[in-house]
């Protein structure tokens, strides 16, 4: 029988509920539980924010964007031969899918309002467009085989400014030589929550852009290619490979450079949360150290008797170690229940809303990451046990004669 563990269990079960040690023990358990719960919830929310914002950005601009170099710094650039570029991109194992696009500036005129926008033409030649996830009303674009679709998608912000609803028609004026006018029908309304997109872009069929250009582009030409990678973390290495192997007259833009402010903001959030979590771990560790110190002081008489009976310092130290282990496990169980319960409540019922004007989304997001959950539990467990070991070395300095007389 493990004597140290047996005595530890007896101390645990025989503690007076009204004693000072009992109160400190409860505080230690609560400290570990709340510390772990706050860590789990903080990382779940942080990762949720990161995933939500990144997915919104990726749904509109993919990971990499390839276009021709243009010294005019204009949105409308020289076209690229799509079939040749797609064949070259197939050589890269990092590429998941490619999506052709073309853009053209326009002015939308309704009965009461006028607004300048950018018409972005897309196609679904390599699977469904990532833009589909941003739909809030109506239907996504249709791509008939016979002719270019007259449907467009407008953002919620543009629809509100122009007082448009699904099914309305609007005139698009294209300033070029010769000037062109097209009437498009609003088939759907999207919302990314990001002003960089929602205030500027209208989504349409890429064939409309080809027909509007003068001279008209054949079906093989596109304004650029958006590339979705299998792993976003490889974006820097893949972009470097593109620079080395693709034709010299092509420009490769990383989404992290195009919207650097958003990604810098995410990095800032990450640093702030890490500092916050370090402080939480420190407080929980300090509470555990203080709790074991108090237990040792209250049990000084018992320690003296055990030493007089022949118990070694290591045996008594293990006794308090098992005591601290019991508190740690109980605190972690309670903390996990609180954290997972809160995350599930928010994930399924959206009890905490957000202002999308400031946070880019209408609710606090939750991301489930089992690996991170296990990592935080392991960090809490190891840190707490190391904290338990610190005060137990005080036991070696306790003399049996003095300890037995200690009151």
From TrEMBL:
GO term, biological process aspect, one: lipoprotein localization to outer membrane
- List the record's Gene Ontology CC terms alphabetically: plasma membrane protein complex
Q: How does it sit in the membrane?
A: Multi-pass membrane protein
Q: Which InterPro entries match?
A: ABC3_permease_C, Lipoprotein-release_system, MacB_PCD
Q: Which residues form the ABC3 transporter permease C-terminal domain?
A: 274-400
Q: Where in the cell is it found?
A: Cell membrane
Q: Which PANTHER family match?
A: LIPOPROTEIN-RELEASING SYSTEM TRANSMEMBRANE PROTEIN LOLE
Q: Could you tell me what this protein is called?
A: ABC transporter permease
Q: Which organism is it from?
A: Hymenobacter lapidarius
């Amino acid at each position: 029988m493990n004597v140290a563990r047996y005595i530890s269990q007896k101390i645990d079960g025989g503690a007076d509920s009204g004693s000072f040690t009992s109160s400190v023990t409860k505080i230690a358990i609560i400290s570990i539980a709340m510390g772990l719960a706050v860590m789990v919830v903080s990382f779940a929310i942080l990762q949720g924010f990161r995933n939500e914002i990144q997915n919104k950005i990726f749904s509109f601009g993919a990971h990499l964007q390839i276009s021709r170099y243009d010294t005019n710094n204009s949105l409308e650039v020289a076209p690229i031969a799509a079939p040749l570029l797609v064949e070259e991109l197939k050589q890269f194992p990092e590429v998941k899918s490619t999506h052709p696009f073309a853009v053209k500036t326009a002015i939308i005129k309704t009965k009461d309002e006028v607004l300048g926008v950018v018409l972005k033409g897309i196609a679904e030649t390599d699977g469904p467009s990532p833009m589909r996830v941003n739909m809030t009303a109506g239907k996504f674009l249709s791509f008939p085989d016979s002719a270019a679709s007259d449907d467009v998608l407008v953002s919620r912000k543009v629809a509100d400014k122009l007082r448009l609803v699904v099914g309305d028609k609007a005139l698009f004026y294209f300033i070029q030589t010769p000037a062109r006018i097209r009437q498009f029908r609003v088939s759907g309304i999207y919302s990314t929550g990001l002003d960089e997109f929602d205030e500027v872009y209208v989504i349409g069929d890429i064939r409309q852009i080809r027909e509007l250009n003068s001279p008209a582009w054949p079906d093989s030409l596109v304004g650029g290619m958006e590339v979705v990678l299998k792993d976003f973390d490889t974006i820097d290495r893949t972009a470097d490979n593109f620079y080395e192997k693709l034709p010299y007259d092509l420009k490769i833009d990383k989404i992290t450079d195009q919207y650097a402010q958003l990604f810098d903001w995410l990095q800032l959030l990450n640093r702030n949360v890490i500092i916050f979590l370090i402080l939480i771990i420190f407080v929980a560790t300090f509470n555990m150290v203080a709790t074991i110190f108090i237990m040792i002081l209250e049990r000084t008489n018992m320690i003296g008797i055990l030493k007089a009976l022949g118990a070694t310092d290591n045996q008594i130290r293990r006794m308090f170690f098992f005591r601290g282990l019991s508190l740690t496990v109980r605190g972690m169980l309670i903390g996990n229940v609180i954290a997972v319960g809160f995350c599930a409540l928010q994930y399924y019922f959206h009890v905490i809303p957000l202002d999308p004007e400031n946070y880019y989304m209408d609710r606090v997001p939750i991301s489930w990451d089992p690996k991170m959950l296990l990592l935080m539990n392991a960090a809490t467990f190891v840190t707490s046990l190391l904290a338990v070991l610190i005060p137990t070395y005080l036991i070696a300095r306790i003399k049996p004669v003095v300890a037995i007389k200690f009151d």
